[in-house]
Amino acid sequence: MSNKIINVVAAAIIKDNKVFCAQRANNKSLGGYWELPGGKLEIGESPEQALIREIKEEFNADIEIIDYVNEASYDYDFGTVVMKTYRAKLTSNNLELLEHQDSIWLELSKLNTLNWAPVDRPAVRLLSKK
């Protein structure tokens, strides 16, 4: 049985040497886990286009992508998530929680204090070493 591949993107939004971390709603898949915000790619989108769209949809915020961090994958029971993570900065003044239950700005050195979704962990390890 082959696992469904789910291509997603995530943003490590950095401001004042802190990273924006979002907690998934309890009523969603992987509820309660923390994640770098983002979402699924749609057909015909580049990862960068998808990331800009997802941050607008989920947080009513605008970002500028700075650079690429990594790609990681994780086999969940619902499929294999393949996630590309990018460092980004806010270009708008707001971040509204439209789909998440909580958020926090954390110093890079404290990222490992949260219970991250498994696919986010490799990016979090890389970011926390910067």
UniProtKB/TrEMBL annotation:
The top EC class is hydrolase
Keyword annotations: DNA damage, DNA repair, DNA replication, Hydrolase, Magnesium, Metal-binding, Mutator protein
**GO BP field:** DNA repair; DNA replication
Pfam families under this entry? NUDIX
Q: What's its EC? A: 3.6.1.55
Cofactors required = Mg(2+)
Does the UniProt entry include the keyword Acetylation?
A: no
InterPro entries assigned: MutT-like, Nudix_hydrolase, NUDIX_hydrolase-like_dom_sf, NUDIX_hydrolase_CS, NUDIX_hydrolase_dom
Enzymatic reactions = 8-oxo-dGTP + H2O = 8-oxo-dGMP + diphosphate + H(+)
CDD domains linked: NUDIX_MutT_NudA_like
One annotated GO molecular function is:
8-oxo-GDP phosphatase activity
Q: Where is the Nudix hydrolase domain?
A: 4-128
Transmembrane regions: none
Keyword set includes DNA repair: yes
Family per similarity comment = Belongs to the Nudix hydrolase family.
Protein name according to UniProt: 8-oxo-dGTP diphosphatase
What species was this sequence derived from?
Streptococcus zalophi
